[in-house]
Fold these 4 entries.
Entry 1:
Amino acid sequence: MNPSAADTARQRPTVAVLGTGIMGSGMARSLLRAGLDVRAWNRTQAKAAPLAADGATVTVTAEEAVRGADVVLAMLRDGPAVAAALTAASPGLHTGQVLLQSSTVGPDATDDLVRRAADLGLIYLDAPVSGTKQPAEQGKLTVFVSGPSAVRETVEPVLDAVGEHTVWVAEVPGAASRLKLVVNTWVINLVNSVAECLNLAEGLEIDPRTFLDAMRGGPLDSPYLQGKAAAVLTGDLTPSFTLSTALKDARLILAAAGSSGVRLDLVAASADRFVRAEAAGHGGEDMIATFYAGRAPGKDGG
Ligand code: NAP
């Protein structure tokens, strides 16, 4: 790369976004708004196609998306999905490219992906995000990063576009993914707590709105409680984080806790609720559909 091309890459890196689901689409739009060149690829092409209207180059293959890109941003479901995308992209990858791995994959898959990336000559940044659909669309995520800070300058324009806050956790990949599991333990327990309060209110014939009013503005209230409860009460379960993705994360948390000798009763119970709700057909809805895992028999709508 000649010096001026290197300067351009630092200031305005070309980004290949692999995975344009709920999060990847929003992040791609935030990158485009920041003026970066974006190539977008998704396994189901129809989900990437709308990004063309926003200025992205939508590619048919992962290989085309990554060819010549400075940064490869992976925002896929899980470790196996990232591994599959990397394999498909491999003929287009080049040594020294940065892999900004933002999917929630857990520590074991991170180790596997770090090895794969090293074999492909990529520089791996373990970069999971906190925040959901709207923050992704608004460029207001928090990004946890672990990996070599030597590539900080290259990725900063990308991190600044997708997030309002970057936490550099460590120089070696893995710590950011472990932190992400701690954060999601909080979220998963919280959403199931909201659901159980609504279940119990319904079972005890307390109008859930009375419960929400009793909490409103007090020290135990939270926007999360009010927002998730409102989704159930209005019946709008459009996902910002699907229940089946939350179940995937609960399983990652339990596996990581198990291998470190930690016992997590609440996440285990939350996973059971997610399993029941998914079996009842709610996997594609927002994770607050865990509400349907605890309803008293005879209540309809589940
Ligand atoms: P999503 O809407 O379900 O998107 C998942 C993406 O993964 C889609 O692009 C999907 O492609 C792709 N995919 C799944 N399996 C694949 C495979 N075997 N090969 C290639 N592509 C595959 O999920 P999301 O909510 O955007 O989440 C993406 C990642 O971000 C997950 O790791 C999630 O845990 C994490 N995350 C989500 C949130 C949130 O609030 N939603 C927040 C933080 C982190 P198809 O379209 O072809 O199925």
Entry 2:
Amino acid sequence: MTATFKNFIDGEWTAPSTGDYFENRNPADWNDLIGRFPRSGRDDLERAIASAQRGFARWSRTPAPLRGQVLQRVGELLVQRKEEIARAMTREMGKVLAETRGDVQEGIDTAFYAATEGRRLFGRVVPSELRNKWAMSFRRPIGIAGLITPFNFPLAIPTWKTFPALLCGNAVILKPAEDVPHSVHLLVEVLLEAGLPPDVVQLVHGQGSVVGRAMVEHPDVPIISFTGSTETGSRIGETCGRLHKRLSLEMGGKNAMIVMDDADLDLALEGVLWGAFGTTGQRCTATSRLIVQAGVHDRFLQMVCDRAAALRLGAGLDAATEVGPLIHEEARTKVEEYVGIAREEGATVAIGGSRPVGGALERGWFYEPTVFAGVRPGMRVEQEEIFGPALSVIRVQDLDDAIRVNNDVRYGLSSSLYTRDVNAAFRAMTDLDNGITYINAPTIGAEAHLPFGGVKQTGNGHREGGWEVYDFYSETKVVYVDYSGTLQRAQIDTYGE
Ligand code: UN1
């Protein structure tokens, strides 16, 4: 009997008005059917919005420290259910268990940070330029936040959006990626068990082109947060611009690791394997370019190829697996297309470049870890996001060259530099054009209590995580209190005397 899942709308687990469902299958074994999930329609969304408005009216008046207590409890429940959720996540998303445990842990960290923010959520009191007058700011909730989340961090990224939105007093509507609906289903269970009023969270499964789009276009959803492709983000941005919505976009990356001649190569090797092939390269922060200084290029390339070729592919629930499958066939085909493009452009496929053959791997969306050598700046495999286990290696002469190559792409999420030279490190920290730079660590490893996001076409200026995300989910209100008993004219009475 196949499990059939429901939406969570208006305080109830409810079947979609369309009566239509889609299948959720294990990417490591497509014979493993996880369940059927609602392919919802506009009516479902309309009901979710109406309910969320009622939820917002109440929740926005709940004191922030009490909202924080709910998130504290959410964190505690996630701790209790960590292993169960991680296993469910590996089954539907494919990445190895160590990584899905990390994904849940990121949700836990985000919850506990949000909980403490309930007792801060600072405004400011500043001196007024006039006597006997106070000037201050505080934060107000905004309304309903429509959250459109990706497949690659099935729990962590929904929590990055949901927890600060809730802490700030908003209601949320979640539209998870169709590939990972179960993880978000479990998150909603946790939110409800923690005591969140049921109409404050709504879960509407379905297609981005139907549910996501209707949410973006709906006048009663003033906040949209989206993580996904730059192309979809641009379309969302156009609509939100027209409707004057508050929008946070987290999109593509083409992140580079730079390895200088003086680097600790063994350390850099561990870093690049983890950065490029962890999560099967399906991270916004994946290391997809390796920029190596000429003096160590050939040696380091050989080291990377030797180790990458030996990485063990398999189902993420198997303890011996190092690299899981891609999320679906289209993702695998995309990697394959780029292998062809790399060859046409004159790069070499140093290792990988094919689907593994034989055995259980043929029942999943597996692809061999792939390294492109002899890549030159400007080639498509050097410029475009592949979102798979493919690494482009570029030779450079010096740090200036490396920084130029790093910066000469349309994206700007993360970057990394391996060196023992402190001057080089500080130059790179200043000049690498990215939202996040790592020194002697790979391009991934963001922590929940620091702002996360990128420059250029990776984002639109907002950050997730850390203290900055609370600016996105709240509106600043300024209040002046004049207790002088006289009309005091700003800019005139102070300076005009
Ligand atoms: C992403 O790359 O899609 O940086 C998110 C990391 C994670 C988050 C990555 N904590 O390692």
Entry 3:
Amino acid sequence: MQQLVTIIGTGPAGLTAAIYTARAALKPIIYAGLQHGGQLTTTTEVENFPGFEAPILGPTLMEEMTKQARRLGVEIVSEEISKVDFSTEPLTLWAGDKQFTSTTAILAVGATARTLGLPHEAELMGRGLSTCATCDGFFYRDKKVMVVGGGDSAMEESLYLSKICSEVILVHRRDQFRASPIMEARARKNDKIQFLTPYQAIDLQSDRRGLTGVKVEHQVSHKTKTINVDGLFMAIGHTPNSAVFSPYVDTDEHGYIKVTDFTRTNIAAVFAAGDISDPHFKQAVTAAGMGCQAALQAQRYIEALA
Ligand code: NAP
């Protein structure tokens, strides 16, 4: 039987699309990719996803969504979609060497953490450098760390690390913060977090074991200083994971897939949902909502073919 719906990505957008299309008897297959559960698997407490009186851990929330999808019969494949040809009807996709076709595709592969692009960054990744406090904070118990960024992620990472580390230096290149006032206020109230602005991290110092310090530059006077830290957590936003699809699907200048009429891409059979097509909100609940829209639009597309 022709595969009707292929969903790529298992964050809130992909899993919601899977739940809806499964309930519409479209037998969706969902490709998990490398990070099953998406970015929520690297976060701690979530208290803004409706339905839970108490905060729920991000990984737990995604586990519950996955179980819900499985209960409805969704097939979850732990492989990445490595290539697509969206010029064909039905669409052609590759998971490794395996080639298959699908009437529709829902792209929900989210976005990846950005890094500063400093010299030696790659070799120090995991030896002092990180983009995920929840994943790596454990290794910095009672140590002094730096967080770079001025958004909600930087606040959240700093607050998380303040529970583990002896000291957290929050470095941001401007005096104004992009973070929501409530998150900024929480971080400012925390004795262990020291704000350092307007500074940019410009170089990394290391020895054989890993990172030992970060050189920072004042953005007005251009004076520099080196701060000794054991860890540097980069919390400077994300890049949409659209490269595999961009030969066919229109994206904006930042790589976000362009959608019109909710989740429609420039290809009639291809829909996009969640952070891959949302430069504005990037919330779990908005991603889930877009997943629902993509599912219903894919369903209508399939019904119109009959
Ligand atoms: P963001 O809001 O885009 O903030 C990125 C920050 O990194 C900005 O302050 C930016 O500085 C800085 N930055 C970017 N490139 C940089 C560079 N090369 N060098 C130094 N600094 C750089 O990203 P985010 O914090 O990851 O948040 C993304 C979305 O997720 C937001 O909508 C946020 O509200 C949401 N979120 C919510 C929660 C929560 O509610 N618990 C937690 C995390 C994220 P400038 O400000 O100068 O541009």
Entry 4:
Amino acid sequence: MKILGIETSCDETALALLEGSGSFNEAKIRVMDSALISQIDVHREYGGVFPSLAKREHIKNLIPLLEKVLKGGKMLQYKIRGEKIDDKTLEKLREIMNREPDLFEAFVDFVPKIKKPAIEAITVTTGPGLEPALWVGINFAKALSEFWKIPVVATNHMEGHIAASLISEKSFKAKASLKKIKFPAMALLISGGHTQLVLIKDWKKYQVIGETRDDAVGEAYDKVARMMGLTYPGGPEIARLAELGRIEKKLGKLKTDPFKLPRPMLNSDDLDFSFSGLKTSVLYLIKKKSLTNPVLSDEEKISIATEFESAVTEVLIKKTKKAIETNNIKTLILGGGVTANTFICQSLDKTITKEFPDIKIYLPEKNLSTDNAVMIALAGYFNRLQKTKQVQNIKADGNLHFV
Ligand code: KG4
Ligand code: ZN
């Protein structure tokens, strides 16, 4: 089955074409092509994602990306004569993209000119995420579905982050098996909007057993970065400074007194997290510092970033270990944008491998850590396999939960 994945939940517009075969345990997949336009530069001056701008950018990006992936997937064929759309279809399309008139214009200008590709289904992220942004992808999926007469399958963005870790590098070159999961498995999902421990008893059987009570890990990174005057998104910036800090520490070159930050909820009885206190502690640190000198020196920034990353990592490791022990976990899946952080992933990998040598640990390939459509296409393929899960009236749900 060939499936088109669409992702517009936040600040990346992404499309992917994926070919899948076989059922859950023996599924083989090939990534035919994927393309993505990041809006980071657009949102940078606001210090975060601005929903109406995200919507505008998704509207602008979808048709060029569709052309790109169809071409890359060798599915782009122009009709010899451009087809005229009948009035009824035109009205339906206009109705579907009523709130995105520019997308409607771009759609009717391009899609009727190309031959219907051999795609059997479309899958789109319906949540969690920013609703104005999600709607653009959903309405685009609905319009394609209407025009090409193929079904749309709803996909949960966080399920996509789980799926991302199962794709092996080989799938980008040829059809290849997914990484093998032994159940019960568990996913640690760390992104800009979520921090969750998800127990997976079998394919598509999810139970959230721990989550953040306030800020997500990525959100804490971004907020701390903003306090230190670093550019958006702060995650990669803090990671870069923390890396420098660890090197300087090893060489005994870190000049400032090391800052100390708390490890929130490290020893709580549950599997929940809290990162807003950590962020507030950084704020107090900076305020206290600015009494003597209002500008943070590079050394101070490095020191804060290093300590912040250590605190986050320590908490993530402790809670993950606890969840593994209490649930007899056999496979650990790491997912979400913060898995782009090498230190966090290496530290988790080192500790878990040492203390639980029988556990398999899966991480997304580097280009699949942050938001993309390959992960949505794969999760959508699973949803399509599970036909009962198909939704008729697809709508955006900014707070969509695992069932
Ligand atoms: O999964 P994702 O792309 O979007 C959401 O679903 O939220 O995650 C984005 C988050 C941002 O908060 C970003 O700062 C963080 O992932 N991030 C990182 C790194 N790269 C991205 N956080 C820490 N270290 C990184 N290297
Ligand atoms: Zn994400």
